[in-house]
Amino acid sequence: MASIVILLAVFMTNLDLWIVNVALPAIGSSFASSAGGAATLSSLSWVLNAYAIALAALLVVAGRLGDRIGQRPVFLAGVTLFTLASLACAVAPDLGTLVAARALQAVGAAAQLPTSLALLLASVPAEHRTRATRNWAAVGGLAAAAGPVAGGLLVQVDWRWVFVINVPIGIATVAAGLRVLPSTARREEGRLPDLAGAVLITLAIAALSGALVQAPDWGWLDARSLTLFALALAGAAAFVRRSLRHRHPLFELPLLRLPQFGAASAGTFAFGIAFAIMLLSNVLWCQEIWHWSALRTGVAMAPGPALVPVVTVLTARAAQRLGHGPLVTAGGLLFAAAMLWRTCFASLDADYWLDLLPSQVLGGVGVGLTLGTLVAAGVSSLPGHRAATGSALVNSVRQMSATVGVALLVAVVGTHVGPAQRPDFRAAWVVAAALSVATAVIGVRITRGARTREAAPPTQTPATPLTEGAAGQ
Predict the structure, then answer these.
(1) Across the chain, how many H-helices and E-strands are there?
(2) Taking Cα atoms as reference points, which of 121, 119, 78 lies closest to residue 378?
(3) Contact residues for 414 (Cβ-Cβ < 8 A; gap 6+)
(4) CA distances from 268 to 121, 262, 263, 299, 468 (A)
(5) Can you tell me the distance from the alpha carbon of 56 to that of 399, in angstroms, rounded to the nearest whole number?
(6) Is the dihedral of CA 85, 90, 91, 92 positive or negative?
(7) CA dihedral (418, 419, 421, 427) positive or negative
(8) Which residue pairs, CB below 8 angstroms and at least 24 apart, start in 86-94?
């Protein structure tokens, strides 16, 4: 029963990603009508990016908070806040209020996501950690399969219902969780991670995103664009410097010295950018270029996400037998093929069977092979007392990549989307394909690293506290 409660919360959070993307054009139309002017893609992108930026900055803090005061109270507090913020999104009177409520939603998600995985891993034997992680990812895939159609159906009533749907799920999760989730002991004492570091990384990501989405209007060499790029660079540099010197850094950089964890994090970042480009570009293409309704768009996009949990489950044994690397390589190449297919066959005249469906199938299989496997490759290499913090770091990287992906798409496509933007969409798909190929190369590196570790005598293992802890699992 405890596992059902945990996975229900994971389902709710992942469902939100898909239905908000499908609802984005309707949100823009609603606020454009009320304000008397057009809502640009750059302003709408903050509905997605405010959530992703706040989530990326706070996941590690929330993960470490769970390590210190226990996973159960942090998890339940996160679900509660996410539910209340969803209600605030549903009643938002303007775009600014919606963006602020989305950021508050992200605070709740940050508390819920890392603790959910840590609670799940704590409930299974050590040898089943990889399978449990993949099941956790598969629930996200199930939400992805339901999300486009659910989003389309809800938007047919009103876009605000895409947020209202979270409220009963959240209430049920908290009510059941109070009864069935076990109390957890504190694993660590001491201070929380560097909160100033969280501010710096938030500033850096927000500035980079702002520069990318505004530069098409302002000009790439405009003083405002250059100032934002400089602010992003300075914030990132200050964050890295502070993380290297702080006694309790936000991101524990030694974790990245674990070869498998570092490679998996790099793959998650590259693939996350490509995935974000694919998701939002498909929604915009169907609704703005083909002039399809939100419901028709959701149904058209459903086959790809529906394949993700199926592929994840069917390849579980292959991951145990072959290792993580080959699956990441195959998935990255298939996703690249999906993006190149769209580049070659996309047409202003709607041709679902030739254009979108084959790309959805290739991409769905690619995501099923790649995303969950990258998370499993990273988390399974960590010592048990860093499960929550490590999973939070992996998910922070994923959220950063989502922000960069959305911002890159806006930078390439422009702030206004219409039939004349077809060449820009193609350029975005080429970028996504290139990043997917890079992910496939990282999969090769993960494979080689695993073979090297298997062949090396025990005495050749680097004697660092992190690797010693991982070896003991």
Answers:
(1) 18, 0
(2) 121
(3) 41, 216, 421, 424
(4) 20, 10, 9, 27, 25
(5) 5
(6) positive
(7) positive
(8) 86/16, 86/163, 86/164, 86/166, 86/167, 86/170, 87/163, 87/164, 87/167, 89/160, 89/163, 90/160, 90/161, 90/163, 90/164, 90/167, 91/160, 94/31, 94/34, 94/35
Which pairs from 198-203 meet CB under 8 Å and 24+ separation? Answer: 198/57, 198/58, 198/60, 198/61, 198/250, 199/57, 200/235, 200/236, 200/238, 200/239, 200/242, 201/56, 201/57, 201/235, 201/236, 201/239, 201/250, 201/251, 202/53, 202/54, 202/56, 202/57, 203/231, 203/235
What are 121's two structure tokens? 């891993």
Half-sphere exposure of 282 (CA within 13 A, CB side): 33
Polymer length of the chain: 473
User: What six digits make up the tokens of 417?
Assistant: 């989307």
pTM of the entire predicted model: 0.85
Q: Angle at Cα 274 formed by Cα 258 and Cα 160, nearest 5°?
A: 110
Q: What angle do CA 116, 283, 391 make, to 5 degrees?
A: 20
**Residue 174 to residue 72: CA distance in whole angstroms:** 11
Query: What percentage of the chain exceeds 70 in pLDDT?
Result: 84
- For the cut 60, the answer to whether the pLDDT of residue 70 exceeds it is yes
Using only C-alpha atoms, the chain has a radius of gyration, in whole angstroms, of 21
Q: pLDDT-derived band of residue 362, with 50, 70 and 90 as boundaries?
A: very high
CB-based contact 2:122 (threshold 8 Å): no
Token pair in block for residue 240: 């890295």
Q: How far apart are the first and last CA of the chain?
A: 26
* pLDDT for the residue numbered 468: 31
Under 8 Å between Cβ of 366 and 12: no
Give the residue from 125, 132, 133, 112 showing the smallest Cα distance to 8: 112
